[in-house]
Structure formats: C-alpha cells, structure tokens
User: Fold these one by one.
Assistant:
Number 1:
Amino acid sequence: MILSPTQLGVQLWEVAHASTGLPWWAAIPVATVGFRTVLMPLSLRAYAASSYLALLHRAFGLSREVGDAVAVAEAQERRQRVEVAASASVSEASAVASTSSDSSIGGSSGSSGGSNNDSTTVVDGARALGRMELVRHVVAHLRKESKLPSFAWYVANAAVQVPIAVSLTLALRRMCDSLWPGLTSEGVLFFTDLTAPPVYLQTLSTPYGTAGAILPLALMLLYSSAVDRSRGGSSPGINMALKLCAIPLYITALQQPHAVLLYWLSHAATQLGIYQVAALAEPSHGSSTAATAQTNQGGGSVDDLLLVLSDSYDKAGNKAAARACLQALSVRQPGLASVHERLKQLDK
C-alpha cells in the first residue's frame, strides 16, 4: 500500500501541505503549479508535437485536392485519346473504303483496342496513388516543411502526465472520504469544507446552494479556453469534439469534492500558462500558420505539392503515381517545360 500510486499521491499532498505551511485551499494550487513546473519541458515538447493532429487533418484535405486534380487530368487525357483514336479511325476508314469494307472494319477495331489500352493505363496511374499512401506522402512533406518534433513526444507526455493526474485526483478523493485533518476546515470563501461536493448524488442535496456551481463552471471555461489555445484544437473538427467533452466534465465535476475541483482548476490554469509560454517562445507561429492556411486555399500550393509528390513517388519506385502527379500538374500549368521533361524521363 505504501508504494501504490494513490498512497504516494496522499504522501505528496501531505508533504506539500506541511512544507509550505499554507492552508489546504492554497497548498493544493501551489503544489499543482510546482508539479507542472517540473514537467514543463516535457509539456512544451508535447505542445509542439500536438500540431501533428492539425497537420494530419490538413493532409487529408490536401490529398483530396490532389486526387481531384489527378482526376481532372485523367478525364482530359482520356478525352484527348478518344478524340485522336476517333479521328484516326475515320481517316483509316476513308483511306481503305475503296478497297474493302472488311479491312476497314478490322482497322477500326484494332485502333479501338489501342484506345482502350491507353485508357486503362491512365486509370491504373490514378489508382497507383493509393488513398492512404497519398496521405502518408502529404503528411511527410508537411511535417518536413513545418519541422515538427516526433509525435512520440505527445505520447510520452500523456504516458507521464495522465497517471500522475489520476493518482493525485484519487489521492484527494481518498483524503476527502476519510475526512483528512484540515480539509474540513481549511477552505475559503463559501467552500470552507473542501471534502463536500457541489451536489450529493445520493440525496441530490447541494451543501453550498447555487454557489456550488461556481468552481465547475470556472473549470469548464478554463477547459474551453485551453482547447482553443491548443494546436490540436485549431482544426474545426477536433475543436468541436474536444468541446463536447465539456458536458460530461461538468457533470463529473458537480460530484467531486472541492479539494479535487481546486486541483483540476489549478491544473487547467497551468495548462493555459504552458500554452502562453509556448506561444511566446514561437512568436511567429500565429502569422506563419495564417499564411500557410491562406496559401493552401490557393492553387499554387497544390501545384507545388504535386511536384513534390511526383519526386516522392518516384523515389519510392511508384512510376505510375509519379506520372499521374506530373500529368495533373501539366494540365493545371500547361506552360511548364520542366514538367514535360520529367514526364519524358519517366516514360523511358
């Protein structure tokens, strides 16, 4: 029991309370800030790595644009091949009409077969892109361009911080359940008893009346603000999903002792502080992100991405996918001589 995570959390809280000499309502936030400060280097690296979530969302959007560009190029090339095949069939039929109708039919069928083979080649080139393979190549390009740290930092931070937060929360719950000395009297303002929750679920009674909802509401506001400031929350879909989690968070907070609510509030406040420190360390992040988003809405970024993807697929040995990207780029920008040269090199 001495080495259990919950018991270790109890010992940490008691050491923090005894060493600071503060009442419990002040010792809990001070200890929380101390814990988060020790782990701040890991938190900052995880904050930078969390951009991978927004980057992945943007990669799916760009991959759809690339797929649409390739589809347009395929349709145009297929249409051109059909027109060439049709004109060749008409020319051949008129040339041999004076000799034999059978030979005319044979020539027409032969040219038609050639057209089908060419069309199949174009379709195979598009399929060679591969949906998930395309996303992987786009993610690799965006990550290299933005110089993001490995996503392993985000996972490592969660592996460290989540068990600590859970252990400290369970420790406070155990201390409140056992009416730990000082917790019942060293509160502040309206919540003098830190062991009492805003709502007793068994009896649906509210020991502090409507004032008991103040800390849960403040927790929700801090949580929503943290979601907006996080890099993962910059994606609309992720932002909405995270904010929907505020509803069960509020319901859970109403049933927690005020000591736990103080810890959660301090934890959320320090998280906002970490985001602010990270933003000050990267002053150009906001402007660069806005510029990148604005560039992605234009056609130039997709054209550049098609060129980069052609090189990436070519290095991976997927000649058909590389040709499909170059063909799409040649349709979007017909005057690029370098694209036609690369297409000739791929066809060799």
Number 2:
Amino acid sequence: MDSGSNGEEPTSWDELCNINLMPSELFLKFRKELQGLRVGVNLEFYNAPCNEYLAKLVLKPLTPGRKWKFIYEPLHQDVRLLSKKIPITKFLNLQVGIGHNFQLHATGWKWKLTTCLGGDGVSRIRNKTSIGLFPGFDLRFGWRADYVLPEITGALGTGESMFNMNSGRLQASLDRVEAIVTHSDTI
C-alpha cells in the first residue's frame, strides 16, 4: 500500500480491519408469559469500560401493538415506564419514558432518538441478530460495524498526485450477547 504524497507511513491491515468478538455486555433474561403479559428478570453484566452488574424486573404486554414497558431496578431503586420505540422515519425512532428514583427522591422524564445508522464522521451499522436454538431458548447478538468506504482520487496538472488511494476502514464488534429463556403456558 502506497503512502501517497502526504508522507505518512503505510497503514497495516490490522489497523484497517479490526474485528472484536469479545462482547462488553452479557445478559441473561428469564421470561414468563402470563395472561397477556410478559414478566422478565434480566441479569446484565458489563465488562467495559468498567465492571458492573444490573438486575431488572421487566413487565410488558404481549400484544403486537404494545405501547409500553415497565422496568424496576432494585439495586438502584429506579422505576421507569417507557414507551415503545416510535418510528419517525424509516431509520429514526423516538422513545419516551418517565421514572422515579427512590434513593434520590427524584422523578423525571427522558426521551431518546435512536437510529441503526450514523456515527461521528464514520458510517455505522448497529443491529441485533436472534437465533432460536430450541423452543423457549434464544440467543441474541448485538453487533456494530463502523466503516469508511475506500476512496480513489487523482489529479493532473495541479501539482497533486496523479493517483491516491484511501483503503477505507472497518471496525466491527460483537457488543452484546443475550441468552433468553422463555416459559410459556401455551399448548
């Protein structure tokens, strides 16, 4: 790979393409379906940037048009009621929530705009992929890929190089692994 006219050292392939398969989040989710509701206990383990553990109790309706979910975090004494993600455009979603923290005696609301695309000057794809291993047990993988597409430029008679190539970059990572155990009484 040529360094071009800017005098920089050539970049190694390890720097151009980096794939990290060590997840920073591990979730164990236990779900029980009762009379149109899903009751869940989530055990969440985070190993980057610092080690942390969260437990959550989650309650949400099973209907396809569900509009809310209730979350209780006993360790932080947080209670939240969240709307489902509301599509604003094909790639943009809005989520709104209200919550109360019993330790801080504080009530407030939050909103969040999310997308599967975007980044800081870098294109990003974020997605979740689910695999049903057998009835009642699923694995879900949260992954992302940050990339800069290759670029070829050139000039003639301007004092710049006749041919320049930027190889692009790819940084992909497996961010989250979820093991989901669901017990349902449906026959």
